[in-house]
Specification:
By secondary structure, the chain is α+β, with helices and mostly antiparallel strands. It has 25 helices and 22 strands.
Length: 808
């Protein structure tokens, strides 16, 4: 207790030192806690389902068609739950948006069709009411619905009496049988209702194989592994091929297999590397900050040598002095850690600015017990290591020498100087690694933004809608509605072109299918051609700004009564019609070669999934009237700012059908921006950490040189008195500082080269050893560090020799 009181008095006595050290530690520890809260919520924390580590996704895969993870068909699901011994329970689900009838205007709600086995697989139960039953998975008995907690609160005022009431979804009456718990979010936080997945006899048949629009999640039995389940699924596939030998050729050519992935691994696969990189970056910033604090503490040790010498002369042992200084350092780090917790709270309040909330499971990012424990361990480890270093060096003081010098030594001991210089070199090295990595991500992001998406996103608005099957049951009714909407939107002021597509680029879905080329027999062992497929209206290419390269676009005559036609992109044309004119050639859709269509046009390739899309997969465009779908996206090009058109588009659709809501209204530019979020997060945060590291490293080298100049004033006075010029003295100090910077830069670059392979998945179109980044990061550090070195050097050069000698 006496040591603690004395340590507190010492820290209060040196308020300037204490303030700088505490603020440095608070900033670095707080940043660590904030980032770890994201790492913990996204990568480490188990899902809120009992024994969630036993939950796995089971996907089909077609490596030969570059389709590594597809969904599964209903027959696949039925085969696996019946024949795979490793499965304890399993569920099948598919997304579906619903039009929820309301008194003022219809509302679009994201929902899920899911088998009743969801409750056993996830081991969840409704907050109110009951779960689905097996009979409700039969067609005709499936008009029941479970509400999400937020939908229940917002639209039904949280009334318990809602159970048993009727709601209208897509114009059909559904009975509310329950409300899910508040914290239940599956499979995404925007899903607000669940309805039973009812399989028709046709969907259970072999003819349904290949319609892979659903997702399977299974719970493994205790002791079972994903590898064992995969083997069992492969055995099931072999049995199917024995029963259906005609499918063997296709399966072998495409390399068809089954992929089993743990739930957590699959969910965070796209962001795991980025989050670990951020955690490594903020840890590096913490180490730099701790090194700075350790240097400050070493400075205080040197100024207190006479105090320690007197303590030693009075009988204080080495352990006694280590303990005293250790308590001071520990108290300093503890205060910094406590303030760091508030910095973390503030940092998480700004999570939306950096995009952490948009990550998978990002809604769970918060400061909880695990993060507090991490903060406590960080404070303990850094405080123990960096706090004890100065204490150990102070305990080695020679009492006789210190008392003989009268506490007026002109320089620190060699061992202390080496430690201070070593800490500065380490700071520089870590700063170089951070700055180079941040520069690499900035350069990569700049290259990505310069990519041509294949269309013109300027002044273009998009909006999705889903036509209820009960109200629009036929292809004719869907086509008629779509054509009326296009005509209505064309009449809006400022609108120049209108089109529609079932899957807009940078959108929600990316449908694909196999196809064949008439007159070309498939080669044994070679997978059939596979393409992205789109249904589009005649004005779609003009509305998107997709260039027409050959032939023609669709016209109003390409309807259900017209000749079946198709427009292809340049990727397909170059791959299969390089030596001939593709116009007039014919293709077939599907593995069975049905539906002959004539190619009438070739358009430029489009990036569908993101700006980093390599556009190596071809695209087939079909006239919407010849392939109408229930869900599609409107595309309207305007001379006005696109976001000003939103209300007019919504009102235009409601004039045609007052019960038809629009949803997902975004500009094309906004869609592109949304796909860049996962690259912006590491870029922005590493830029912040890099700037922090740059500042701390510069302060570190400045502190070392400034202290050395203060300790060597007598030496500089003598040098000046003996004829040294201001430039000589300045260069002496500047050279010492730049040598530390050079060593740190070299070590930092070597460290970066050693770990650069971990950055390959985070960069686009450049090498992790990008010369620009390798030069730019160290160059920025060199400029800032040179300025930090110049200030003490200038101070040394202006020492008055008479004043310096007189003070001695």
């Amino acid at each position: 207790m006496n040591d603690l009181k004395f340590a507190l008095r010492q820290l209060l006595k040196n308020a300037g030192f204490t303030s700088v050290a505490v603020l440095t530690l608070a900033l670095c520890i707080g940043a660590n806690s904030a980032i770890f809260s994201a790492v913990n919520a996204v990568l480490l924390k188990p899902f809120p389902y009992p024994e969630s580590e036993r939950l796995v996704f089971v996907n089909n895969s077609y490596p030969g068609n570059d389709l590594l993870k597809a969904g599964i068909s209903i027959p696949d699901y039925l085969d696996r739950i019946e024949q795979a011994p490793s499965i304890e329970s399993a569920m099948l689900y598919t997304f579906e948006s619903f039009n929820l009838a309301a008194e003022d205007q219809p509302t679009r709600v994201m929902g899920l069709r899911v088998t009743p086995s969801m409750f056993d697989t996830l081991r969840v139960a409704p907050r109110l009411g009951r779960p689905f039953t097996a009979p409700e998975s039969q067609p005709g008995n499936d008009r029941v619905v479970l509400l999400g907690h937020s939908l229940w609160q917002d639209r039904f005022a949280g009334r318990a009496s809602v159970v048993g009431e009727t709601v209208r979804l897509h114009g059909i009456a559904y009975s509310v049988i329950g409300v899910m718990p508040k914290d239940f979010e599956f499979p995404r936080s925007n899903v607000q209702l669940w309805v039973p997945y009812a399989f028709t006899p046709e969907q259970r048949s072999d003819d349904e194989r290949g319609n892979e629009y659903s997702t399977m999640l299974a719970r493994l039995k205790p002791g079972a592994t994903p590898a064992r389940l995969k083997q069992e699924c492969d055995t099931i596939v072999a049995r199917i091929l024995e029963r259906m030998p005609d499918a063997r050729k296709f399966v072998e050519a495409t390399g068809f297999t089954v992929v089993v992935s743990p739930l957590l691994e699959e969910t965070v696969a796209d962001v795991a590397a980025m989050l670990w990189l951020l955690q490594a970056g903020v840890v590096a910033a913490l180490l730099i900050g701790c090194a700075n604090v350790a240097n400050l503490m070493l400075t205080r040790v040197i100024t207190r040598e006479r105090e320690f010498a007197i303590r030693a002369a009075l009988g204080a042992g080495r352990w006694r002095m280590i303990r005293q200084l250790g308590v001071e350092g520990g108290l300093l780090f503890l205060i910094g850690g406590l303030l760091g917790w508030f910095v973390a709270v503030w940092g998480l309040s700004a999570a939306d600015v950096f995009g952490l909330a948009d990550l998978p499971r990002g809604e769970d990012v918060r400061l909880d017990g695990s993060v507090f424990l991490f903060t406590l361990v960080s404070v303990a480890i850094t405080g123990l290591f960096f706090g004890l270093l100065p204490a150990i060096h102070a305990s080695r003081v020679d009492a006789n020498d210190a008392l003989r010098d009268g506490g007026t030594r002109t320089s620190a001991g060699r061992s202390q100087a080496r430690m201070r210089h070593g800490l500065v070199v380490a700071e520089m090295g870590l700063a170089v690694m951070l700055l180079t990595t941040a520069g690499l991500l900035y350069h990569s992001f700049d290259r990505l933004q310069q990519q041509d998406p294949g269309f013109n996103p300027a002044s273009t608005l998009t909006a999705r809608l889903t036509l209820p099957e009960a109200k629009y049951p036929t292809d004719e009714s869907r086509s008629a509605f779509a054509n009326r909407v296009v005509t209505e939107l064309k009449s809006l002021p400022g609108v120049t072109d209108v089109g529609l597509v079932d899957a807009v680029p940078f959108g929600f879905t990316n449908p694909s299918a196999t196809y064949g080329i008439v007159g070309r027999e498939p080669t044994d062992g070679v997978p059939p051609p596979h393409a992205l497929v789109r249904s589009v209206s005649p004005g779609y290419f003009a509305a998107m700004g997709i260039p027409l390269l050959r032939g023609r676009a669709f016209t109003e005559q390409d309807n259900a009564e017209g000749t079946d036609v198709v427009v292809i992109d340049r990727v397909l044309a170059d791959r299969y019609f390089k030596a001939m004119d593709p116009i007039g050639q014919q293709i077939t859709l599907g593995a069975n070669g049905r539906g002959v269509r004539t190619i009438v046009g070739v358009v430029a390739p489009v990036k569908h999934g993101g700006l980093d899309d390599p556009t190596t997969k071809e695209t087939l465009y079909f006239p919407y009237d010849q392939r109408p779908v229930e869900t599609f996206t409107l595309v309207a090009r305007t001379t006005l700012p696109a976001d000003q058109l939103m209300n007019a588009v919504r009102e235009g659709v409601l004039r045609i059908d007052p019960e038809q809501p629009l949803f997902d209204l975004q500009t094309l530019a906004g869609r592109i921006e949304g796909t860049l979020a996962q690259r912006k997060v590491p870029m922005r945060l590493l830029g912040v950490f890099g700037g922090m590291a740059l500042l701390l490293a510069a302060l570190g080298v400045y502190g070392v040189l400034a202290f050395n100049v203060g300790q060597r004033r007598r030496e500089f006075g003598i040098r000046t008195a003996l004829g040294a010029t201001m430039g000589d003295v300045s260069n002496l100090v500047l050279g010492q500082g730049l040598r530390l910077v050079a060593w740190g830069t070299a070590i930092g670059l070597l460290g970066y080269v050693a770990v650069n392979r971990f950055l390959r998945s985070l960069v686009f179109d450049i090498s992790p050893l990008d010369p620009v980044s390798l030069v730019l990061g160290p160059a920025v550090l060199l400029v800032v560090a040179t300025l930090a070195c110049w200030l003490p050097a200038r101070r040394a050069a202006t020492v008055d020799p008479m004043e310096a000698l007189r003070t001695e």
